[in-house]
Specification:
Layout: E1 2-6, E2 9-10, E3 13-14, H1 16-31, E4 35-41, E5 56-60, H2 70-83, E6 86-92, H3 95-108, E7 111-116, E8 122-123, E9 126-132, E10 137-143, E11 148-152, E12 167-170, E13 199-203, H4 214-223, E14 226-229, H5 231-235, E15 256-260, H6 266-272, E16 277-282, H7 289-292, E17 295-298, H8 301-317
Parallel strand pairs: 1-4, 1-6, 4-5, 5-12, 6-11, 7-11, 13-14, 13-15, 15-16, 16-17
Antiparallel strand pairs: 2-3, 8-9, 9-10
Length: 318
Amino acid sequence: MSVLVFANSTDGKFKKTAFEVVSYGKKVAEQLASNLVVVTINAADATELYTYGAEKVLTVSNNSLSTFNAKEYASVIAQAAVKENASIVVVDSSINGLYLSPLVAVALEADYASNTVSAPSSINPFTVKRKAFSNKAFSNTVISADNKVIGLAKNSFGIHENIVSGALESFDPTVAVSGVKSESVERVTGKVTIADADTVVSAGRGLKGPENWGMIEELAAVLGAATACSKPVSDLGWRPHGEHVGQTGKPVASNLYIAIGISGAIQHLAGINASKVKVVINTDPEAPFFKAADYGVVGDAFEVIPKLIEKLKAFKAA
């Protein structure tokens, strides 16, 4: 028996989440006294995964899988699990991962535990800790089925080096024919994306208009952060919908989340609650966000942000 991990990649390059799920899979394999197998699809350099414990990497190279398709990718992962006699499959909780995991579970007749945040606390019975109620609570979930699919929440387990002498094996599965096919994919280029960012700088209607977003982008550039916004801002057309974070937008699980001019509606807080450190800057001391934040600044963003940028630049220069 083995543990199988799907290491997601974009344009042949692995994201940080790939290294995190491999690190997690290695831990689970150690707990089970089993081996870790990783499957990749059209990845350029799969040997990177040896650093995080991948003892065997199944490399799939297929031009028909150049754009993501949940049914086709799930079929590949399920076939890899059968080939390697894997009773546990680990997938990340990216948008693609959330589409994939249920399909993999159905194909393997497995139980599926989404939003998992830590290694199993018990192997018999197999018990994992998961986020619940929009990240407001945790649940300890027992998975009783022989086959298990685990969806690992982003930035929950961390990336851990565990260097091994791995081996590559070419894998040529049968690609399931899907009724839906992507013709093209448009991606944001030239800046840090919300999905990959350790730091996110987000702003709301307190910025008063799209013409004032220059200082948000400057602060993000200084911090090496992604820019984001609240739902009203994207609805007004001030910022692209791809930057909308919250329960109805993109979920954020960054190390640092800075909210500027955002009051903190419950839907927004639910979507960013998994972030480790939350900072709010708002003129209203009664804004709901202050109750959820780790640090708060009561002040005018048009005065605070330029001074913060100045101090950060001076700090970095020193």
